[in-house]
Specification:
Layout: H1 8-20, E1 29-33, E2 43-47, H2 60-75, E3 86-88, E4 92-93, E5 99-102, H3 114-130, E6 152-154, E7 159-161, E8 175-176, E9 179-180, H4 183-190, E10 211-213, H5 219-235, H6 242-258, H7 261-268, H8 270-273, H9 280-289, E11 293-297, H10 302-312, E12 323-326, H11 332-335, E13 341-344, E14 364-367, H12 370-377, E15 384-388, H13 391-400, E16 405-409, H14 413-420, H15 423-441, H16 448-472, H17 488-496, E17 499-501, E18 515-516, H18 532-540
Length: 548
């Protein structure tokens, strides 16, 4: 994971000067211009070798030592990123947003880790009762430290793995159960590391012949069950078909949700499963006071939402919203043009049988479709900002088809940023990029000694990559990045979400007229230009810019 203030291009350019500065062939000085982000702007020279070499080859270990010292010094000057900031993929001007829409689960309501344990245990019981799985699996325990969101499950091979934005498998992140599949075996099975588009799931995370993406928070216990049961069957030498296992686990988890078991358990113990104060009441009240229109579209039932919102916001929560639509059946809500809205009473029962021709204050609706919603409200285009946690089901169609502005709530973001701010990660990452550039530039030296040195550097580079990966998660690393590229999840996030944040309350730091600008990242062929210092002010304390 790279923070928006991490200018890796400058690190690379600093290292490259060791090979590009002019000087006598026998003694090559190294002139480095320190970037303003890493200290005062001045030039200084280092001696690349401490002895004359007749062959003109620099002392690579001396270059290495000098580069490492500069890299570690530079790492101390990289500004931290505020983990409670809002981040921008596409320019978004809040002053032009008149209508705010919200999903419920993991958006207005946030949950404790206890919810994943609940779903895991309930689904185990369904597998034992309904699918006749061995009763011994009841003793399996959910581990929250294994899987991360955004992984793909290879249904055909029974592997859980991580893909980057180019459909490449990150070697070292392929598991059958909890057993890692090594790089050579991975290449043999997939004939390389690329996964063809024909095997990928759709933007809704369904439909792929082989690869199904586990996209939201609710899939974490599902991944836990898939891996733990596979481990159990392997250990007991019980033959199994990985596709049947996937279907069974997926249907068991689905039954827990669709039958109401999960909702009932949450409603019976809100303090255990619903996270503490998250800023939702304050943010909704601020929007309401500013005269903004608010609506709620959720797949959850009214009874469930009402119980949770009364707990989070208060008994009068409905007064904050102009339209409340439950049981929406997203993502088909955004594409189906035939499903009508129905009015329900506070007990969740159908109150009328006539066609809904307008949205009236104080009424609760269910089902429906987005085209009819737009027709009845007139709310369309970029004056609408919709918040959700599921990049596909909540955000894809509103952004691509209807032109809404979209905002993603990514709870994992805060922890990832805090890790990225740590001294250990900064030092490792800065040195990793510097070392990688030295390896690239040293390729011009093809003498045997230089090639051996470069091989040693490559070994160190691999160790550094694995170390930085393990700081986030020892099995799969960051949900946002592989070693070099954005993950498949990160690519979809940047495509479907204009802004993203760890929690809805992060927006309380910004005035309602705030305009978010994306960080302009130079392409490989462009001149590197950094606005890291200025952006650090935005991310660390937006109110400072207003003199507050």
């Amino acid at each position: 994971f790279l923070s928006p203030t991490t200018n890796t291009t400058n690190m690379a350019n600093i290292a490259r000067t060791w090979y590009r500065c002019p000087g006598p062939r026998t003694v090559r000085p190294v002139c480095v211009k320190r970037h303003p982000d890493f200290g005062e702007s001045r030039q200084y020279c280092l001696t690349a070798i401490n002895r004359t070499q007749d062959d003109g080859v620099p002392d690579l270990w001396k270059v290495y030592s000098d580069a490492k010292g500069s890299a570690l010094a530079a790492s101390k000057k990289i500004p931290s990123v505020n983990a409670q900031a809002v981040f921008c993929n596409n320019e978004t001007n809040l002053a032009k947003i008149d209508i705010y829409g919200f999903d419920y689960d993991y958006t207005l309501a946030t949950y404790t880790d206890e919810l994943h344990l609940l779903i895991y245990d309930l689904a185990k019981d369904v597998l034992i009762r309904r699918k006749k799985y061995p009763p011994e699996i009841r003793h399996l325990k959910y581990s929250p430290k294994f899987a991360v969101r955004g992984l793909h499950y290879d249904v055909q091979n029974g592997f859980l793995l991580k893909l980057d934005a180019f459909h490449h498998i990150q070697l070292g992140t392929v598991y059958r159960g909890r057993h890692p599949i090594d790089a050579d075996q991975t290449r043999d099975i997939y004939r390389g590391i690329h996964v063809p588009l024909s095997q990928m799931s759709t933007k809704y995370g369904i439909g792929g012949r082989t690869m199904v993406q586990m996209m939201d928070q609710f899939t974490l216990p599902e991944m836990g069950l898939l891996t733990d049961i596979a481990d159990y069957l392997i250990a007991k030498q019980i033959p199994y078909d990985s596709e049947y296992l996937f279907q069974d686990v997926s249907s068991a988890v689905g039954e827990c949700h669709n039958s109401g078991m999960v909702h009932k358990a949450i409603m019976n113990d809100l303090d255990r499963y619903v996270a503490g104060p998250n800023g939702t009441p304050e943010y909704l009240q601020r929007l309401n006071a500013a005269g903004k229109k608010l609506f709620l579209i959720t797949n959850s039932s009214y009874a469930f939402v009402n119980k949770g919102m009364r707990h989070i916001v208060g008994a009068d929560w409905e007064d904050l919203f102009d339209v409340v639509a439950t049981d929406a059946r997203k993502p088909t809500f955004f594409t189906n043009t035939n499903k009508p809205f129905r009015v329900i009473n506070r007990r969740g029962e159908n109150q009328t049988f006539g066609r809904v021709k307008s949205f009236d204050p104080g009424m609760i609706y269910q089902q429906g479709n987005l085209n009819l919603f737009i027709k009845l409200t007139g709310w369309s285009g970029m004056k609408v900002l919709y918040f959700g946690d599921h990049v596909y089901s909540d955000l894809a169609d509103p952004a691509l088809i209807h032109g809404w502005k979209t905002a993603a709530i990514i709870p994992e973001l805060e922890d990832e940023i805090n890790i990225g701010n740590s001294v250990e990660y900064r030092e490792s990452l800065t040195w990793l990029f510097t070392l990688q550039t030295l390896i690239e530039e040293a390729q011009v030296h093809v003498d045997p000694e230089s090639m051996l040195i470069r091989a040693a550097w490559l070994d160190e580079r691999n160790r550094l990559r694995n170390h930085t990966k393990a700081l986030f998660n020892p099995y799969f690393g960051s949900i946002f990045r592989t070693h070099d590229n954005p993950t498949y999840f990160s690519r979809r996030l940047s495509q479907f979400a204009n802004i993203y944040m760890s929690s809805l309350c992060n927006l309380l730091q910004y005035p309602p007229t705030y305009k978010f600008y994306p960080n302009r990242t130079p392409l490989p062929h462009e001149i590197p230009m950094s606005n890291a210092k200025l952006r650090a002010l935005f991310h660390n304390s937006p109110s400072q810019l207003l003199g507050k």
